[in-house]
Hints:
Layout: E1 10-13, H1 19-28, E2 33-36, H2 40-48, E3 52-53, H3 57-63, E4 66-69, H4 74-83, E5 95-98, H5 104-113, E6 119-122, E7 125-126, H6 128-134, E8 137-142, H7 145-155, E9 159-165, H8 169-197, H9 202-210, H10 217-228, H11 237-251, H12 259-275, H13 283-292
Parallel strand pairs: 1-2, 1-4, 2-3, 4-5, 5-6, 8-9
Antiparallel strand pairs: 7-8
Amino acid sequence: xxxxxxxxxxxxxxxxxxxxxxxxxxxxxxxxxxxxxxxxxxxxxxxxxxxxxxxxxxxxxxxxxxxxxxxxxxxxxxxxxxxxxxxxxxxxxxxxxxxxxxxxxxxxxxxxxxxxxxxxxxxxxxxxxxxxxxxxxxxxxxxxxxxxxxxxxxxxxxxxxxxxxxxxxxxxxxxxxxxxxxxxxxxxxxxxxxxxxxxxxxxxxxxxxxxxxxxxxxxxxxxxxxxxxxxxxxxxxxxxxxxxxxxxxxxxxxxxxxxxxxxxxxxxxxxxxxxxxxxxxxxxxxxxxxxxxxxxxxxxxxxxxxxxxx
Length: 310
């Protein structure tokens, strides 16, 4: 795989379920990519795809024009960029793009601490592992116009980029989309339980939901993970609860009650208490199966989204 020397040198930190396939998309586009991850196997996988391994976060930042980070939670970003020296090592004129679903205040603090002339963009993503593999993510980008102008051509290799406004707005938009996702996921399980308890076959319910006002991303993409019984382990309850906690922080700016968001937080906490937080997000629907004595198993070709061929 040849690299295009006219393109900016990229660094990628965080080669997890989302990060590694995104890194592969950038390599496939011809970018020179320097990578780092705490897990040696993930780092080796990126090298096998054509990346150059670094020895630390700071080592990546010191080598590249644009640094991308894709990490699970805000404390991981703080560790990478502050404790491990990524922020201080940014080169003058370089750009840091954080793809993490992060805390708005943290990204704004880091931007204020960044070296002179180093830009910062927050661009959390949606579209799950299959979107990362196929380059069909949606990316919510916030930052100064000049920084977004540099970031967007790189991010477009990963999917559609929505310019959200100043720094921090990308994070807000991503959390709003997750707010609606979590509410829909909790509601879908309740809808299945209501229908089945009143004599409607699950297959009929799903068909009707997907061809009616009840349709949603959750009904089409996530319901099969319920039917298959794995509940989508690619996104854990721990990550759901992290995002719901960040949403609760944003809710402090709203001079009104947010009862649906609060209810979603409550039922996801209940799922975490019952099944542990390391299991798949859609265990929020399994609660209904267990409480009502129902089974949401449904025969079909329910190929996991992350196994669909690119």
